[in-house]
Specification:
Blueprint: H1 7-35, H2 44-52, H3 60-78, H4 81-104, H5 114-134, H6 142-152, H7 159-178, H8 180-202, E1 208-214, H9 218-227, E2 234-239, E3 246-254, H10 256-269, E4 274-280
Antiparallel strand pairs: 1-3, 1-4, 2-3
Length: 296
């Protein structure tokens, strides 16, 4: 007999649906009402669709929907159904909301202004991704493509480097199609997206987060942090006051976005793990990817 979902689970599902709908609305508005009318582009799937639009006689939302479904299918085949479930909701909802905004035919700016459009597009897309990431969802764009490439082609390259490589490659190709200026504006949009995501997730002051992870899968998660995130990690032995048992705790310093990826991996590897994350004002350390200790 199938177990009936409890009230808390149903409430969480409703809240998730509402928040993801809001996130998709922000993203669709940024794309349809700001980016496209001003001839801009960006990285990821959006940038790929913008390039293909120059060669195929299909609408943006239609092509985006096809691309999202293809990524979803490849993700299910290569990474498994569990990973595909994370992008299923937004892969279907996002292009659907985009169609609605296309029919509304509304533009944010009264006249074409590429600089303003690049800024506001970055802000609204950042809000979209920030809300989605905060609820553990993904739109199935370049982050999913990076995971697929890593698993099938480049297992020794960190996920963050692959993600950056894909976005930069799409923007560079956009420069040949739309011109160098549009590609440079796309870089501005991409930076603003990243900063807005960090703002949504961690507030104004956070540049570095310190994560502590208590888990039964210590070695597996440590390998992921070192190999995929290209970050150092420490392992400490702790003793539970109530049980008196020894456990291992992971300690890692990373960027807010890397922290989200680590948390998602921990949730998949060990759902019973305990994860804490706090913002750090400054970190110094030569050769560790942080500020030089002798220069600040």
């Amino acid at each position: 007999m199938m177990k009936k979902p409890d009230k808390h689970t149903v409430e969480n599902a409703i809240v998730d649906f509402i928040l993801i709908l809001i996130a998709c609305s922000f993203g669709a508005f940024a794309t349809v009402s700001i980016m496209l009318p001003n001839g801009l582009t960006s990285g990821g799937l959006t940038g790929i669709v913008r390039i293909l639009q120059c060669f195929l006689p299909l609408g943006f939302s239609t092509m985006y929907y096809i691309g999202a479904v293809i990524i979803l299918a490849v993700c299910a085949i290569t990474l498994g159904l569990k990973e595909a479930k994370k992008i299923l909701v937004m892969s279907l909802m996002y292009p659907t909301v985009m169609v609605v905004f296309e029919r509304m035919n509304f533009r944010l700016l009264e006249e074409k202004d590429i600089f303003l459009a690049a800024i506001y597009c970055g802000v609204f897309l950042g809000i979209c991704n920030g809300i989605a990431f905060s609820r553990g969802y993904s739109s199935g764009g370049s982050d999913t493509v990076a995971k697929i490439v890593q698993k099938r082609l480049l297992p020794h390259v960190s996920l963050s480097k692959l993600l950056m490589g894909i976005d930069v490659s799409v923007i560079v190709i956009s420069g040949f199609v739309f011109g160098r200026n549009i590609a440079l504006y796309a870089m501005i949009t991409t930076v603003i997206i990243s900063k807005t995501i960090d703002l949504i997730l961690f507030g104004l002051a956070t540049k570095i987060v310190q994560m502590e992870i208590i888990t039964e899968k210590t070695r597996e998660i440590a390998d992921y942090i070192m190999n995929d995130m290209d970050r150092g990690v420490s392992i400490e032995t702790i003793i539970g006051a109530y049980s008196g048992k020894e456990k291992e705790k992971l300690l890692v310093l990373c960027s807010p976005r890397e922290g989200i990826l680590i948390r998602q991996h921990v949730a998949k590897a060990d759902p019973r793990a305990l994860v804490t994350s706090i913002h750090v004002d400054s970190v110094w350390g030569n050769g560790h990817g942080f500020n030089d200790i002798d220069k600040e």
